[in-house]
Amino acid sequence: xxxxxxxxxxxxxxxxxxxxxxxxxxxxxxxxxxxxxxxxxxxxxxxxxxxxxxxxxxxxxxxxxxxxxxxxxxxxxxxxxxxxxxxxxxxxxxxxxxxxxxxxxxxxxxxxxxxxxxxxxxxxxxxxxxxxxxxxxxxxxxxxxxxxxxxxxxxxxxxxxxxxxxxxxxxxxxxxxxxxxxxxxxxxxxxxxxxxxxxxxxxxxxxxxxxxxxxxxxxxxxxxxxxxxxxxxxxxxxxxxxxxxxxxxxxxxxxxxxxxxxxxxxxxxxxxxxxxxxxxxxxxxxxxxxxxxxxxxxxxxxxxxxxxxxxxxxxx
Amino acid sequence: xxxxxxxxxxxxxxxxxxxxxxxxxxxxxxxxxxxxxxxxxxxxxxxxxxxxxxxxxxxxxxxxxxxxxxxxxxxxxxxxxxxxxxxxxxxxxxxxxxxxxxxxxxxxxxxxxxxxxxxxxxxxxxxxxxxxxxxxxxxxxxxxxxxxxxxxxxxxxxxxxxxxxxxxxxxxxxxxxxxxxxxxxxxxxxxxxxxxxxxxxxxxxxxxxxxxxxxxxxxxxxxxxxxxxxxxxxxxxxxxxxxxxxxxxxxxxxxxxxxxxxxxxxxxxxxxxxxxxxxxxxxxxxxxxxxxxxxxxxxxxxxxxxxxxxxxxxxxxxxxxxxxxxxxxxxxxxxxxxxxxxxxxxxxxxxxxxxxxxxxxxxxxxxxxxxxxxxxxx
Lengths: 316, 378
Fold this sequence. Notes:
- The complex is a heterodimer of chains A (316) and B (378).
- Chain A is mostly helical and 316 residues long.
- Helices cover 74% and strands 4% of the residues of chain A.
- In chain A, β1 (57-59) and β2 form a beta hairpin.
């Protein structure tokens, strides 16, 4: 009887010790997370809250805000009121910028996939040692400042730039094509800047691909194209999704590239938002536009992830 | 080459009227260049007959899988040609060859159900939805997997995956089915079951099977004919019994089963038959390897179960001192030492009317069964 009691006591004692240990572990986890939580709180959640509040205030006359509740900013995101007769119409300028941003972000993502997939496939099928060299080469652009790289593209695309001069010297062109300060230039710039973000996740997926499945596809009468469509793409889908997200989101909110390569007249959302906080002196509208951009990204993400995961079904 | 053509012709005229399905002609396959150069196949020629269960047997790295991959079309020969029904297919990609493969790892598509896996080949051939679904149902019945039709491949066991891989490769009715060590991942019991299953499927479908394995027992139990390979060459082709009873080379004799090697001198030789004098014993009749007339000093092999121990002596061609007795249940192994310090093993079945009690240290006579002494080429 006493033995049993002792065992019981020991048991509960062990349990208590276990609880203490797990509490200790939870504390450690919190301690480890705290720097990240502090940064997210101070640099993301806090500012976002400020932006949210600002978007419901009135604009100040010389920038800043007047602390009075007002729906004007949200009204002005897509609509505008005529200053003479008070009629309401769509804000064409804003709409065209939204559409251009979406179009260019989609285009950049699609182009990045078309260029990035063969690149990633090539790297993933090299012998392991040379793979690292190729991956290293992919990261080289990150060593230079974005602004400088964008100016370099300017140098290539401008009327007296490399492309035009080369085409004219072999008499394919009589006079230079205007490439700089067009949507085309912005698309090229976005593609160039965000391509590595497509290549790296694609590479990670393709590298894990079991190439015996590719052989099985060939063996079962699938041509190269059909193996790509029915075997390789479904299996590397996680990489395609990750790469698309990583390119689409920053491309949609791009600022430097459209500013430099679009020449100021082909604005994207990033430029419009910057304009409202700067020359436009309309901070509430800038805030509302920022939040609209965020919402847009989130909706696009949800739709995209849903559509790509439901098609193939789950597999492990 | 000339010899093998003559041999084939002889075999055909001898009653083997089956047509050749796959003809491998003087195929050499070299991987890499310079220092990394590896000769995976060295001037290999072999003919696989229609509706035959043909096995490529050899240790790992002998080139058997390379040969299979060349027939499937995943690799292309450095020299030589591969003919299917008389037509050269060496240059065709795998998806243009009426040949399907069961992979060692099964290589089932993880993003498809069992049914979609089995129907994949037919779908790629452009068959209609109805045709595909009928064929899939037939295949599921054939491999007894109907109830798992809509499972994902990750939700079924290894043995079931094996059956799906088989059904997938058989569904398009290929002329030749290639099997790359398909049973090596299964446990012993399942492996035995699948051996029987494979034989049944081969008989039911009438498709030529080319089976790759390193397991000699698998090769002997399942095959119509076996090709023994080593170091990129085919050393001997024959029926399991022919290969086992009459190995032509030291490697073949060693790789398949246990064997006693003895030195001998040719006394006389004519048309496949010979008489040899064993170095440590008397004179016995022996079989010479096909197409070779042996002379001088040779090596002969005698399977342990083709010899028998007696106390009688008399006409027995060999005798030796019993060193060790190992009891195995169904049979007993007797390890002897002959004159000249040559080891010799005798295996005798433990049948009830044969319960002689041989003791270690005894001098015993060794009788040899008729037709059991085989002369090696080398």
